[in-house]
Design brief:
The complex is a heterodimer of chains A (about 80) and B (about 160). Helices cover about 20% and strands about 25% of the residues of chain A. Chain A contains two helices and five strands. The longest helix of chain B has 19 residues. Classes of the chains: A alpha+beta (about 80), B alpha+beta (about 160).
Chain lengths: ~80, ~160
């Protein structure tokens, strides 16, 4: 199955793109996506504990099982709104 | 119902307040987040805001509805600007209309605090000597992470 992966903020700079299509085995989870990118982009490793994830624009956990055509986003801590 | 919007032009605060206010309102609380000229001791030149737009809008609408239910205010508007913002410009506007001021103040404070932790918007800060993505606030505990609370941890392999 294919899923669409989106990168935002610092992750977009580290990966070098805003989105890409990824081929996964049936039954793959968000955690499998993370493992793929940790291997491919080792600099992501340090960011992993701080990240949140969404599938089809809803926050979800690393254990979420993906389906064909899902939109998965890796979300660094958000910084909208105003200055601290 | 659409109470929230993402814009790329200057936020028209007065127009939003005037459109929202109804005769039964006894108070409107307007909160504007402003781009400040410094961050952690460095002089800021300008900011770029980006969003996961579809998700950010859904999250903002959810927060607006939650604030109305939780604080019993009459209505809420939230506007966030994206793209490049200069010092002194408004990055976010929250307007709360209510019969009485106390719940309006509470809802306004809750909305900006929660927006800053949950709505997928990021800012890049530009200084004279470079640019960095701002450190965000940690996600709240109800959003799962790889090393979240024990109940949310991914099954170990």
């Amino acid at each position: 199955m294919r899923v669409q992966i989106l990168f935002f903020g610092v992750l977009k700079d580290l990966v070098g793109r805003a989105s890409e299509s990824l081929e996964l085995d049936e039954g793959a989870t968000v955690a499998d996506v993370l493992e793929h990118y940790e291997l491919r982009v080792p600099k992501l490793r340090g960011f992993m504990p701080s990240l949140a994830f969404s599938v089809n624009q809803h926050y979800t956990g690393p254990g979420a099982v993906l389906g064909d055509g899902d939109e998965v986003a890796l979300l660094p801590p958000v910084s909208g709104g105003t200055s601290r | 119902m659409s109470r929230c919007v993402l814009v790329r032009e200057p936020i028209q605060t007065q127009a939003v307040v005037e459109t929202l206010t109804q005769p039964e309102d006894g108070a409107t609380i307007t909160f504007e987040g402003i781009v400040r000229n410094n961050s952690r001791g460095r002089q800021t030149q300008f900011l770029d805001y980006e969003a996961y737009e579809e998700m950010a809008l859904k999250q903002m609408e959810d927060l607006a509805a939650a604030a109305i239910a939780q604080f019993k205010v009459r209505d809420v508007r939230m506007v966030h600007r994206l793209g490049r913002l200069q010092i002194g410009e408004t990055s976010v506007l929250i307007v709360v209309a209510s019969a009485h001021r106390a719940p309006a103040y509470e809802a306004s404070r809750w909305l900006i605090d929660t927006l800053k932790r949950k709505v997928p918007i990021w800012k890049k800060e530009y200084f004279v000597d470079g640019a960095v993505w701002a450190d965000g606030e940690p996600f709240p505990d109800d959003i799962a992470r790889v090393q979240g609370s024990p109940s949310q941890q991914v099954a170990s392999k």
